[in-house]
Each structure stands twice: as structure tokens, then as C-alpha cells.
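Retry 2 of 3 after timeout on previous attempt. Resubmitting C-alpha cells to design endpoint.
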């Protein structure tokens, strides 16, 4: 499948019904379009099975609650919707996007209690998020923006509004010939990339930022479990930017990113080393098991 995302053949699930792809529209006064009142999940289906599917559905419900937005579907109903979309489109390997949002209703100011919460599920065939960087290592810019404090916005929610600085930072990175950008958080600690968590290797141990101001990714948690099962020490801690110079290897994790090696961040370079390749290969085996 190729072409603009609003002009394709296929089916999308919207509020309990499978509709034609080109008919999956919302009104211009949908609250989410004006006030970013939406939460979403990105998931991958491998060989007919969505990896960590229930965990993603659970997080969607949690994200909605964090935004004071009760999603009117159960975990079981969300799971069925996802697999109905895959079946309707005939896909065994695909990326799945579930989104819940405040629709159009009686409210059109900041408040939206009178507006219904709606949900949609789409899917599409999607290859490696960073292209050939999965083999040779991605190149990252350092973003000028910082991830916000949990006191300013629910950073544990996978919410649309949190991604605006990601879009701007990725645009700036691509203009410099980079694949992505690395954020620091509001305190100046290393945080994450625009849509992926980050890991570093030094002296046989792994280091990854404490997710106290970023999304604790499901792929991130999976990779930590894999590393610990291999007997590798994982240090979850606050990382200062100047420490980048001393790290030997680096990789990104995320549903879209999967496990992607990083070869450069700003002026710092990293080896696409043995552990990075092992984890990437082990993750690929796990999701297709």
C-alpha cells in the first residue's frame, strides 16, 4: 500500500463499524483537532499476532483516564476491533494505530464534557521506521526543545499534544540529514528520541534514562527484561548529556523503531556493537515467535 494516507483502499474501524478507508472522516469541529484531546497507541502485528496487544490496550485506557477522558470500550472490545481491521484488510504483518478522541458535540471551548469520546482503529503495512539505519546505525540531532515536567502535563499518557515538539524536532533533524532527534528533559537529563526510548552501553553494562518524565515504552520494558534475562546489568537512572562521550554503543526502542542501532548523536559516535546486534536479533525472534 502506498500513497497519501487519506486516499487508499481498505477498511478502518470507527465507533464499532468497519468503514471504507476514504470515508473514515471526522467533522472539522472535532474537539481533538482544536485542543489535542486524544490518546493513541502504535502496535505491530507479526505473523498474524499483535505483539503485546493487551498491554497496549490497557495503556490506551490509562492514557484516557490521565486526560480525564473515559474511553467507552473495554479491553476485549478494543482487542476485537484491532483484529477485525487486520482481517478486513487481509494483513498478517502490519502497523496498527488505535486512537481515542473527543469528538464534536455541544462543547466547543476548552471544556468538552458534553462531547462524546470516539475511537478508531486503522492499520497499514509499514517497513523499518528508520530505513537502512537498522543495519548501519541512525544519526540523531540534539533537539532544542525539552521534554516537559510531569507537573505541566501527564507525561505518562501517550497523548497527541505531547508530540508537537517531536514533529518540530524531527523536521529540524531531517533538515540536517539526521534520522531523528534526542531530547533532554526539563532538568537537562537525557530523555528520549521523538518517538523512541534510548539505551547506552558502557563496560558491559546498559544504561537507560529513568522514565519519570517520559513515556515508559512497552518495547523499552520488553528490552530491559531481555537484557536482565541475559544476565546483563541495566542501570535505570538519570543520565547527564556529557556522559554521551563515554558510552560505547547506543540503540533506540519503540513499536515503530523496534530495536534500531544509533551510530551518532550530535558530535558523539557509537559502535554498532555485538550487544546492540544481539538485542535487535533477539527482539526480532521474540516478536515473531
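Retry 2 succeeded. Sequence:
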Amino acid at each position: 500500500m502506498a500513497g497519501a494516507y487519506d486516499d487508499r483502499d481498505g477498511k478502518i474501524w470507527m465507533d464499532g463499524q468497519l468503514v471504507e478507508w476514504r470515508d473514515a472522516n471526522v467533522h472539522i469541529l472535532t474537539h481533538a483537532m482544536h485542543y489535542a484531546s486524544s490518546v493513541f497507541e502504535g502496535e505491530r502485528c507479526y505473523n498474524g499476532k499483535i505483539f503485546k496487544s493487551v498491554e497496549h490496550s490497557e495503556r490506551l485506557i490509562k492514557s484516557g483516564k490521565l486526560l480525564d477522558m473515559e474511553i467507552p470500550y473495554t479491553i476485549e472490545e478494543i482487542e476485537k476491533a484491532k483484529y477485525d481491521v487486520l482481517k478486513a484488510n487481509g494483513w498478517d504483518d502490519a502497523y496498527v494505530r488505535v486512537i481515542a478522541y473527543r469528538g464534536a458535540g455541544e462543547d466547543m471551548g476548552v471544556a468538552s464534557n458534553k462531547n462524546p469520546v470516539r475511537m478508531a482503529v486503522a492499520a497499514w503495512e509499514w517497513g523499518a521506521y528508520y530505513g537502512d539505519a537498522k543495519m548501519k546505525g541512525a544519526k540523531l540531532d540534539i533537539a532544542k526543545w525539552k521534554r516537559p515536567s510531569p507537573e505541566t502535563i501527564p507525561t505518562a499518557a501517550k497523548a497527541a499534544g505531547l508530540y508537537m515538539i517531536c514533529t518540530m524536532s524531527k523536521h529540524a533533524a531531517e533538515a540536517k540529514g539526521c534520522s531523528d532527534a534526542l531530547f533532554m528533559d526539563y532538568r537537562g537529563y537525557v530523555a528520549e528520541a521523538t518517538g523512541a526510548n534510548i539505551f547506552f552501553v558502557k563496560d558491559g553494562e546498559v544504561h537507560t534514562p529513568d522514565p519519570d518524565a517520559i513515556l515508559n515504552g512497552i518495547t523499552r520494558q520488553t528490552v530491559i527484561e531481555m537484557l536482565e534475562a541475559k544476565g546483563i546489568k541495566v542501570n535505570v537512572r538519570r543520565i547527564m548529556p556529557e556522559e554521551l562521550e563515554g558510552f560505547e554503543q547506543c540503540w533506540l526502542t519503540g513499536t515503530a523503531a523496534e530495536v534500531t542501532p544509533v551510530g551518532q548523536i550530535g558530535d558523539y559516535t557509537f559502535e554498532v556493537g555485538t550487544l546492540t546486534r544481539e538485542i535487535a536479533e533477539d527482539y526480532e525472534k521474540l516478536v515473531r515467535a
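Attempt log closed. Residues 11-124 form a domain with the D-amino Acid Aminotransferase; Chain A, domain 1 fold (CATH 3.30.470.10).
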